[in-house]
Structures are given as C-alpha cells and as structure tokens.
Amino acid sequence: MTFSYESRNQGIKKVKESTADVLIIGGGITGAGVALQAAASGMKTVLVEMQDFAEGTSSRSTKLVHGGIRYLKTFDVEVVSDTVKERANVQKVAPHIPKPDPMLLPIYDEPGATFNMFSVKIAMDLYDQLANVTNTPYANYVLSKEEVLEREPQLKQENLLGGGVYLDFRNNDARLVIENIKRAHEDGGVMLSKTKVIRILHDENGKVNGATVEDLLTGEQFDIHAHVVINTTGPWSDEVRAMDEKNELPHQMRPTKGVHLVVDKERLSVPQPTYFDTGKNDGRMVFVVPREGKTYFGTTDTDYTGDLKQPTVTQEDVDYLLEIVNSRFPEVHLTIHDIEASWAGLRPLISTNGGSDYNGGNNGSLSDAGFDSIVHAVEDYLADTSKKGEVEKAIKDADAALAEGTLSTSQISRGSALERSKDGLLTLAGGKITDYRLMAEGALKSIQQILQEEFQQSFELIDSVNYPVSGGEIDPNNVEEEMARLAKGAQAIGLEDADAMYLANLYGSNLSKALTYNEPVEGLGLRESIALNYALNEELVLTPVDYLLRRTNHILFFRDGLDEIKEPVVNKFAAFYKWSAEERKVMEQQLEAVLAESGLTNLKKENKK
Question: Do 508 and 592 reside in the same domain of the chain?
C-alpha cells in the first residue's frame, strides 16, 4: 500500500464514512508516536496535521537524541536515567536513524561554568552507569588540555582545563517522524498532512467526539468523528485547547525559541560534536556539530511570543551565536556571510513544570556548595552502594533550596504532561524527541482505558519497545553491518559506494523498496532520482520544500549543490501532480522564499549597508 496523494484522498473518503477510535491532532514526533502505537494496537486511527509532517517543531531540533548530561549539574538523576534508557529504546525501534556520536565537552575555568574537571568526571561516570555503557567502547574518558587542543586546535586555549568525552547520538529528526507516520499508515491508520482543525466537535451530552477540519489543498471542510480526541500539537497546544468551546482550559505552554546556523566545515572544523558553556555566565550551552561536510552550531534559548507557525532567525540570534563561537574558536572569525543555512524552532515547554521531565521537581540552579555536596555523596556511593541514603539526602536538601527560586528559560526542564478535560479532550504536551515513545505509551494506556470504560472496546497494546518504525527492521545491535549489507543492494544497481550508504541510512530496511523507484528523473543522478520517486510515492511529499527540507536535508546541509537539482525536482513535481503554470509558479516562489529565509538573505543584505 503506497503512501501518496492518492492514498491520502482514499483516507479522507474513509474518515468521512466512519468513526475512528482515536483522532490525533498534530503530526510532529509526539503525534506520530501516538499514531504508531494506536494503529499497531488495532485502533482505528486518524492523524491530522495542518502543515507537513514534522514541519512545525520536530524538524527544527538540534538533531541529536540527547542524553541530557547537563541535568546532572542539578542532579536530576531520575530524568537522566529515564532519558538515556529511552534513548536506547529509540535506537532499538529506529536503528537506521539515531547513531552513536561521542560528544566532546571542553571544560573552562570561568564564572558560571557548568562543570569543572572534578565534577564532569563524576557526572560522566554516573551518566555511563545510567546509560549502561560502562566498560564498553562508548565509556567516557577525560582529556588533558593538550589532548583537547590536539583534537580541536581551533579551540580557545585561555582558561581551558581539559575536557570529557561521553556518549551521545546524532539524529535525523524529520526522518524519525516520517518513519513513525509511515508505520502507522502501514498498520491501517489514516495520516493526513495539510489538514487543519478549525473546530472541536461535541456529542449531544457535551462530550468531545471529533473535529471539523479543512483540507488545505482543496479548501473542503468536513467532520472527523472519533471516540477519543488527543491534542499533540506542541507549541500549538493552547490554541487547540481554546477551540474546545465547552471547556475553558488554562494556557499551559511557554514556548522558547532555539536557533541553529550552518557553515562549511572549511570555515569551522570540528572532528566530533562539541558542547560547551557560552562563556557568558547565562546558564546556556552551545553545540557545534559536524554533518555532511558542514558544521552547524546552536542554540539560543529565549522566550517566544511571536508567530508559532513561522519562528525566524533574527539579527540578535545571529550576533549572539557568532559572538560565542568566535570566542570559543578565536581564529575562525565567522561572519553572517559564512552562514549557508539556518533554522529556528520552538521548544514546547510547559510553564508549570519543574525539573523532572515527568512532572516533578524544580530545575533551578544549585549553589556551588549544594552541588559539591551532591558530588561528594555520589562519589562515596560509587565506591560503596550502601551509601545511597547520603545521595538521597543531598538531593533532597538541594531540592528544598531550589524550590525557593524562579526558573529561567534555560532552566525549565523539558517536562511532559497528559491531561483530560471535563468534556474529554486529551492533551499530551511538553517533552522532547528522546521521550516521544515513552510519552506515547503513557497516552495509549489512558486511551485504552477510556475506550474500555466508556465505549466497551478492548485493545491489547503493543510492546512498543520492540515494535520498529518503518525502515527499522534491522538488528539494532549490528547497525553498521546491517547498513553495509543494505548498501550492497544499492551498489548492485549502479550506485557509488557513498551514495549507496547515504540511501541505506536514509531508508533502513525500506531501501530495497526504494530501489524499485529507479526510473531516471531528467536532470538528476541515480541517487536523487530514487529518493525523489520514493518520496512522491511512499512518503506523502506534496511540495518541493517538503522534499528538500524534511524528507532530505538538502536545504540545510547540501546547499552548495542545490542549484543543480532544484529545477529538475520542481519539474518532476509539476509532472507528477499535473500542476498548471500558475500552480508551478506558486511552488517555485514558496521554495525560493524558504531558501532565502534559511540562507538569511535579508539579514545579509542589511549587513552590507
């Protein structure tokens, strides 16, 4: 069964004629995770997303499945424990997407430093125990100042003490979303992008029983009825809750904006992901990550009250990040004109949440004395596990002190919450990409209970830790070997080794299906022809931007080759969808606008004045 415009139309016809068990509003990673588990459990599942899948937030992350080592600064041990365990689960169900990529953490002697050489070793040892990588090739290790500079000679030498290296995972955020969506579709779910909710529906008893939506491609409005409606719209959660006219639900979101900038690796070269304090004593940290011959860095962390649909990179964002990176790498002298691409995204923070990602604690800043007390307690515990009580007491004392403080945007933990309103609307909000499967699992247990108690329908939930996403049917314990095996199939039809491996990492176990879409596209090579044909037929890609930004990363990390392929890509779309001249012009203008925004064209012009 293909996943295309044709199957989308079939899905719309289906939802008009029947009642779903669950309607999911929002097609980012949270909604995609819920859709996968619901459809796999046999529930009649419908998901609607007003933009492209992952367009709003889930394609705009730092592109890591991050273990959250910084939470150990405040000894939010439970959060880190849950996060690293869940990261392993994500790698298990989507082994072709998150890949291990150890992180370098340079340590500087400066005010507001997150770690010193003593505390970072304690934190990394605890982190390794939580992640179960002690005595493995991914175990942490400490570097001297000289070893750090040998590895990254462009780093600032002044006040550098040394560094630590610990396990983290790179990620392709938009691919993770679409692979969850595709699996839900394969299991019978109806997944509709470009479909906007405009009204929450209620039955004669005032209970939520669906939504009126608008097909943004045709302008048609129609109703979708469902026993359970769940809001998974991230930063838009409050807007959807406001549509529930039968219930006055309080606002709960406090979105913050993060920005990332991309330059060529020749301008800023790092051998591995690097993570450091800003040096501004502002509680923030910045990633510098190599990828596809480029280097990207971010992120900012500021409260956001603007247009949720279109957060943008401002001059202030650029100045802030360039100042930090040029300070940490004093010989590179980056300017705005070195930036090839950029992206801005929102974090769906819950304003009332504290330190735990599961609704507990407070994530303010510990005093040095409080932190040292916990460090020493943990050090004793690692030597003698009978001293667990001392750690618990130290953390409890720190929590009591933290409870008196207020939270900055950098200190609010990425907590999640699942709530049901009096009239039945479920809202699953907050969280982060690493936790998506766990959040969905919690939501499915509630949905299962509601369907049993209120609709006398019984469903057995899947074991989602062992249920792979689309493309994930490979051995997660031997990913490199599996990728090489898959790539051989691509090489057999004439692809170069690098192109074959690129497609293997993009599609995982779906590569064999993708290779059947090898009809040449005029103006494109074999690799790009396969990727584009597959996206049109199997990944519900509706615009060139959908394809070039989210099904692939061309706009972000292959910008220097984009001019050669964008016209052939548009030509193929125009032929596939039988666009009129006017429709083609609109799509071309949309693509150019996205390229200009990502490339900071207007800001660069202003900086030439």
Answer: yes
